[in-house]
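Hi U.,

Before I forget, here's the chain from the pilot set. I'm dumping it here mostly so it's searchable later in email.
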Amino acid sequence: MKVVYGLMINSGDADEMLWDHGVWETEEAANEYIEKEMSSINGVWVGELKVNDSISNVAEYIEEEMVECPLCGIEYNPEDVNTDDYDEAVCINCEPGYKENMNIA
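Structure:
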């Protein structure tokens, strides 16, 4: 079992972990984060969290190449652009209008 530390608040009924701020391997690192990033916020403290498996590495952010929709000019993640059904890449926002114009032609 591994121990990590996270930020805690009291929501009124119980203490809750602020998951969106992350976890730290040492209590000192979590306290340092509170001092630097949350110094103006009251009621936040460091709490201990026990996890069943070890945290072997930090999550890696895989930067995907963005795809620009030629219709609106906005860049999107590849998952939000349809490149299979049309001759050009069409984003999810432009796709309904693009389909409608295809049926007219």
